[in-house]
Design the sequence.
């Protein structure tokens, strides 16, 4: 499949599905192809696509920036030290924003933890 162009891929998809370009329009196929690319990038951990960023957590600040160009976050590792990359650390569990707001609804200093 090396050297296959986008138009060649669209032609092969239409041929395989036996559907004309009036049903599988270029816009529909473009969306299918982009979704497939996203799924492959999510499921296949290719080192060339990895990005990493270090930053400092600030008391009272609820967000931290992700690396430029990141499509999704595989994990967040938090260090309990003054150095950004040494000392005790823990990988955070992936949680939905609504869970986090319910779990830690307050930003009061007395109610904060690690």
Sequence:
């Amino acid at each position: 499949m090396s050297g296959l162009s986008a138009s060649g891929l669209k032609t092969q998809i239409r041929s395989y599905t036996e559907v004309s370009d009036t049903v599988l329009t270029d816009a529909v196929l473009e969306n299918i192809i982009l979704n497939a690319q996203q799924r492959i990038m999510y499921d296949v951990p290719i080192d060339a696509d990895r990005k990493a960023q270090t930053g400092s957590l600030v008391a009272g600040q609820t967000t931290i920036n992700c690396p430029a160009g990141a499509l999704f976050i595989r994990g967040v590792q938090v260090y309990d030290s003054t150095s950004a990359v040494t000392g005790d650390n823990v990988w955070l569990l992936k949680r939905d924003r609504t869970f986090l707001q319910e779990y830690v609804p307050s930003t009061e200093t007395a109610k904060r933890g690690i």
